[in-house]
């Protein structure tokens, strides 16, 4: 029989890509959406339920009969992290315990501080230097405690900065390029010559799906890093964008420095900008995750060639027409 998964955050970038990947693999997928207006709606193959990830009863009901709960949800508008992130996780934990489900979590690099740089293995110590990072560490600690108590299984997949056709809230689609038009300029948030790690979102979803397929063979609590696409000096992604545009007969964009000074001016008035400034340190020094454990389990990491991934991303952003 088809396996069933509840994807919390299925309308977002990571959750949406994972939901589509699971559907293609024959899974039944449920999503939870506030203000749906009807109790249940089948759309794009996803069974949508009206509910809120902040309400335990809604999550418990939505998870009924699910073998997997993907916790890919963030607080509404990315606000009030300190107050909402852990309560949402508590609801997911309650539902997973009730169903005996595996929890799948997209991890972040926020968990780590400079003491682990430049290379981060899966078992590297987590000593964050930001409030957001501390919350993520506590989130993973609670998952690990539940798994080690024999209550459920947990898989964490950590990757670089996302890009992809459906990666809505990403540095690539919101900070480096402007959606909806052919790029005339591309902004680089990092220091010249400093490498940065990226992950193509469909590759992330494929990796997650393949790990779910072998979850019974994994330790109850498992962390995996993805290597993704490594930009060694801040130019590789820009050069790929240029190649894609040149093949289309279009002018290449200029590479400019990201205006951090402007963000500092606006940060006192915009919470999201303050949080982005907190994470600037990840662009100022080399931070690279190693994927040895993933290769040990899967034998390979799903990896789309860079130019192909960039072209699909630009089409998805509305910067290029579909061929």
Automatic annotation (TrEMBL):
PANTHER family assigned: NAD(P)-BINDING DOMAIN-CONTAINING PROTEIN-RELATED, PROTEIN YEEZ
Domain NAD-dependent epimerase/dehydratase stretches: 5-225
SUPFAM superfamilies: NAD(P)-binding Rossmann-fold domains
Protein name: NAD-dependent epimerase/dehydratase family protein
Alphabetical list of InterPro entries matching this protein: Epimerase_deHydtase (IPR001509), NAD(P)-bd_dom_sf (IPR036291), NAD(P)-dependent_oxidoreduct (IPR051783)
Pfam families in the cross-refs: Epimerase
Domain of life: Bacteria
Species name: Uliginosibacterium aquaticum
């Amino acid at each position: 029989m088809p396996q069933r998964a509840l994807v919390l955050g299925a309308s977002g970038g990571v959750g949406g890509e994972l939901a589509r990947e699971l559907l293609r693999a024959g899974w039944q997928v449920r999503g939870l959406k506030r203000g749906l207006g009807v109790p249940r709606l089948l759309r794009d193959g996803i069974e949508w339920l009206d509910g809120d990830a902040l309400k335990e009863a809604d999550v418990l009901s939505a998870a009924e009969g699910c073998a997997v709960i993907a916790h890919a949800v963030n607080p509404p508008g990315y606000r009030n992290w300190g107050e909402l992130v852990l309560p949402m996780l508590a609801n997911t934990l309650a539902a997973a315990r009730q169903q005996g489900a595996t929890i799948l979590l997209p991890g972040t690099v926020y968990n780590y501080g400079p003491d682990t740089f430049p290379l981060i293995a899966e078992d590297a110590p987590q000593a964050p230097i930001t409030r957001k990072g501390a919350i993520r560490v506590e989130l993973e600690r609670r998952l690990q405690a539940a798994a080690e108590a024999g209550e459920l299984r947990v898989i964490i997949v950590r990757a670089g900065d996302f890009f992809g056709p459906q990666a809505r809230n990403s540095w690539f689609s919101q900070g480096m390029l402007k959606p909806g038009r052919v790029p005339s300029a591309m902004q680089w948030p990092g220091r010249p010559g400093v490498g940065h790690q990226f992950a193509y979102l469909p590759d992330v979803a494929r990796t997650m799906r393949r790990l779910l397929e072998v979850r019974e063979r994994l330790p109850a609590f498992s962390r995996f890093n993805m290597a993704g696409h490594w930009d060694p000096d801040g130019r590789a992604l820009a050069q790929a964008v240029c190649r894609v545009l040149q093949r289309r007969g279009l002018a290449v964009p200029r590479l400019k420095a990201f205006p951090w000074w402007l963000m500092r001016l606006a940060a006192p008035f915009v919470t999201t900008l303050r949080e982005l400034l907190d994470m600037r340190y990840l662009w100022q020094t080399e931070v690279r995750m190693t994927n040895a454990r993933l290769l040990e389990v899967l034998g390979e990491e799903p990896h789309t060639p860079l130019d192909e991934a960039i072209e699909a991303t630009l089409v998805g952003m509305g910067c290029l027409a579909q061929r």
